[in-house]
TrEMBL record:
This is Shikimate dehydrogenase. It comes from Tumebacillus avium. It comes from the Bacteria. Coiled coil: none annotated. InterPro entries: NAD(P)-bd_dom_sf (IPR036291), Shikm_DH/Glu-tRNA_Rdtase (IPR006151).
Length: 364
């Protein structure tokens, strides 16, 4: 039986209050001060994962730092907290440990963490890429967008996930727009894309300008704050938000009923699992792709550092996607802002977008 661990963290103090309601009585500043020095905690024991003849069990272990703390506190301190959580999973019996959300971003993206453990580590980013591309293409089709003529904007393009997503989708879209904080890194990525596929990608360091030009947005930044706002989106735009915490403002859900925002990187595990449930805000049997990658490697008995560091190869993405298909893992039904989207709701979004575009054309 394969055994894995997976490290999670609260996005903010409201996540802590969901599990420990008494926390609501204190200020966010006080709670973060306490969390800074708290030890890792066991969040869930996932048992009896049985998939096509293979079996696995896993332990979710939470490091208590919030998203803001993971990004703002000194890197050596944060890495020590992450390592402590990994070692807790290791003591439970994990033979491989996955790094969830921003724990895979800090420092050198898992390399230093792996060196301090006796079991391998994976960030899960290869399968995140595979599912992000699948979800983006499916959502575009549902909205009637022709990929070959569409403007695709990758937000956070120079990160490990964004870069390989851009490389793999470059030849499939009409125009590729890359946006990130470092113009120098954007130029380097654009050069790589041209050498691989002869596609001339557009560089736009101004994120809001980049988003305003896009028919499809793949949001994969590692920012702690919201980056994409309702006033910046075209009618009928598709946004696949892979970032955790999310890149898309909650205001979009309230103000733009003509754009399709989906949570990227969500995977359905066939058969689910046993064990006391832990709330990710997801239904039972649905996990993030980074966690699914860790599960897949355990099911295969492949105890190796499959995805580590800031460079992901196209071959890695294809390999883990093939393993997912082998074990029956598949893209979950679309969700938006923690809510399941029905086919009729998606159709309604498409119809409202078409009406807005017609009004714009007819306007004097």
């Amino acid at each position: 039986m394969g055994k894995f661990g997976f490290v999670i963290h609260p996005f903010d103090t409201s996540d802590v209050a969901r599990k420990f309601p008494l926390v609501d009585r204190f200020s966010s500043e006080w709670v973060e001060s306490f969390l800074k020095h708290a030890p890792p905690i066991n969040a869930q024991h996932m048992q009896n994962i049985r998939v096509r003849g293979a079996e696995a069990e896993g332990w979710l272990v939470a490091t208590t730092l919030t998203s803001r703390q993971l990004l703002d506190l000194p890197v050596p301190f944060v890495l020590r907290k992450i390592v402590a959580a990994c070692k807790k999973a290791e003591r439970q019996g994990a033979q491989i440990v996955g790094l969830g959300a921003l724990t895979s971003v800090v420092g050198d993206a898992g390399i230093t963490v792996a060196r301090q453990l006796s079991v391998p580590v994976t960030t899960g980013n290869s399968y995140t890429v595979a599912t992000a591309i699948q979800a983006t293409c499916q959502a575009a089709g549902l909205m009637g967008i022709d990929l070959g003529r569409a403007n695709l904007c990758v937000v956070g393009a120079t990160g490990s996930i964004g870069a390989v997503c851009a490389r793999m989708m470059a030849a499939s879209v009409g125009r590729l727009i890359l946006t990130a904080r470092s113009e120098e890194k954007l130029e380097g990525l654009a050069g790589m894309i041209f050498s691989e596929s002869s596609v001339l990608a557009d560089i736009q360091p101004d994120l809001r300008e980049a988003v305003r030009e896009a028919d499809i947005i793949l949001a994969v930044s590692s920012a702690a704050e919201e980056l994409i706002h309702p006033e910046d989106l075209k009618p009928g735009a598709v946004v696949c938000d892979v970032a955790r915490p999310r890149d898309v403002s909650q205001r979009v859900a309230a103000e733009r009923d003509d754009v399709l925002v989906i949570e990227g990187g969500l995977v359905e595990v066939p058969g689910g699992w046993d064990g006391k449930p832990f709330s990710f805000g997801l239904p039972h049997g649905i996990v993030y792709a980074c966690m699914a990658e860790t599960m897949l490697l355990a099911l295969e008995g492949r105890y190796e550092c499959f995805t580590l560091g800031r460079s992901i190869s196209v071959e890695q993405v294809r390999e883990i996607d093939a393993l997912a298909r082998k074990h029956g893992f598949q893209l979950a039904a679309f969700r938006s802002f923690e809510r399941l989207l029905s086919p009729n709701e998606i159709l309604g979004i498409r119809q409202r977008a078409e009406q807005k575009r017609k009004k714009k054309i007819l306007a004097p």
